[in-house]
Amino acid sequence: MISRAAAPTGRGGGGEAEYAFRAAGEWAEFGAVLDLAYGGHPHSPAHSAVVGAVFEPKRSLVACYGGRPCATLAGYALEMTLPGGPAPVAGIGYVAVAPPHRRRGLMRELVRRALTALHEERGEPVAVLHSTEPGIYGRFGFGPASQVVELSVPPEARAFTGEVDTSGLTLDVGSPEDARAAVADVYRACLHQRPGLLHRDAAWQRRAVEDEPERRHGAGRLLCMVVSGPDGEPRGYALYRLRPHWERSRPRYALSVREVFGRDPAAYAFVWRSLLDTDLAGTVSATTRPVDDPLLALLDDPRSAAPTVRDQLYARAVDLDRALTARTYSAPLDVVLEVRDAMCPWNAGRWRLTAADGGAECTRTGAAADLALSAREIGAVLLGGGSLVQLAHAGRVAELRAGALRAASAAFRHDPAPFCPTAF
Ligand SMILES: CC(C)(COP(=O)(O)OP(=O)(O)OC[C@H]1O[C@@H](n2cnc3c(N)ncnc32)[C@H](O)[C@@H]1OP(=O)(O)O)[C@@H](O)C(=O)NCCC(=O)NCCS
What we know:
The protein is an alpha+beta fold and 424 residues long. Helices cover 23% and strands 32% of the residues.
């Protein structure tokens, strides 16, 4: 596919006049824009089948130039664990603009249209996305709602603090395909452990265990470790791969972990113990672990694992009142928020949020505001991960009534921290 555009007519000049927007068609047409936008990596037929199976063309948008798609936004109807339980959320992915059409406002227009449609159709109250770069989506009211740590455990730092009783547990290793039912069972059982986890039907489960040969970069195929209890019921699993590496004639294979879940502390510890004790392995690394991963409390020497924190999932309130009442709070709350929201102006203004045992309420109010903040800060605390106190110390939340900040910050926080290992 070749993508061509006339020279821009000025900043944002490519907007409505030259471009037509419509719902997406076939995945192949959508994928052709992604191929160009992400640097000329065509999707293999196998990968297209996996991502095509979760693709929702009616919820996805394309911008066309001269009748040909040149920009994309994929929309997904998802169910995510929020503080308090599962709720529908709108996933956004594959926001991409072909090179000749960039910096003309197409991404902005696609995001604006997607959020406006969710608002007008009373769709999911919360939108979530994974961002290739952290600097992109704040301007659209998305805040970094979860963080992850990257870990690298060297061979000399594998010891655990104390013994873990793993008696009665057994271990199997095979392909994710062989372990498909066990992986799905354990994931389902762990779904409500943390905010951020997404319900996976069969198609999303296949996406989670996808093993593209082109992305192995010298490593072997994806392997699956399953831990079962004495009754044979699967209790934990890990998805991982090994890349051969030798140092001075000694095996120091790089073991990289994609995903680990355990239904209980013993199964979780046993999966990690087994990963760390894998024969031939040198450093065991994981790029995407929850910021409060229990592994950090299991390791005797977590410092050697050099945890590096980064932003992960971005969230946004589509409709502020429905978003703030889709979750529960960690403490009783009664606060008036003065909200700025340029992209979704229906959210702007003053809202009273109350939360008690019976649930949360959020209504418009004329009362004096306690906190002033923008949609982006709301997004950062929506899943229970960010800290309003931290944002206030950075000058991004203003406390207008003494004491309101601490109370609201504590109520919004959730333990354990949010985490979303599903790519979309
Ligand atoms: C990132 C991408 C989608 C931007 O599309 P675009 O149509 O050029 O973006 P727009 O013209 O609508 O830009 C809107 C705003 O975002 C800013 N912006 C665009 N790309 C950005 C980037 N990579 N980093 C930071 N800001 C960015 C623009 O400067 C503009 O800023 P403004 O608020 O001051 O006006 C496009 O460059 C692309 O396809 N990149 C490769 C794929 C990718 O990274 N996609 C993101 C997926 S999460």
